[in-house]
Amino acid sequence: MLFSILATIFFLSASPLYQEVITWNNLIESSGPEINSSYSLGPKLSARSALVVDFNSGKILFEKNSEEILPIASISKLMTALVFLENNKKDWNEIIQVSEQDLIKFTNKGGGEEMQPALLDVLIGDELTLRDVFNSGLIRSANNASKILARTVVCCGQNFADLMNEKAQELGMRDTYFLEPTGLSSSNRSSARDLTKLVRAAFQHKEIKEALSQATYDLELKRNGRALYQRVYNTDQLLGNFIKIEGAKTGYLDASGYCFAGVSNYDDQKLIVIVLGADSNENRFQEAKSLIWWATQQEKEAKNFQEQEE
Question: Rounded to two decimals, what is the model's pTM?
Answer without folding.
Answer: 0.85
